[in-house]
Amino acid sequence: MATVTLTIDGKRVEAEQNSTILSVFKEHDILVNQICGGQGMCASCHFFVVDGSAALTEQTKQEQMTLQFTKIDRPGARLACQTRAIGEGIVIELPNGTFVESEEDLERQIGKKADKTLIHPMTGEVLVQAGKLVLRSALEKMKEASSKFADYLSKN
Description:
The chain is an alpha/beta fold.
């Protein structure tokens, strides 16, 4: 089987051609969430294409719908579960931060400074920037985003 070379956060890795980016992440022990189980229904496996977008498959309809809903405010966002590596020259960056596991997890951090940027696990929305105090408003923001996301999923 043919292989391709990708650069992920500065690290060069080899992968089988036509592999999903999610499987490449797993194969190379790159931790990434997959809250929806790789169905393209959340943004927890998103990444950013810095270069080589032509060496990736086109966005699926599911990926387009999910990315339209998210609040990821950086160009080049893709979902690792929906994207396949089909050629050379792919350069990927991972989101700078950590996904909040649950509302309870975020609630336990209220009053503390975030050591990493805290990101909503389904929408990719930044809830708290690194170094900032985690406030109750971040929890409300997370609840609101979760509710909107659940509404979106029920309609699609």
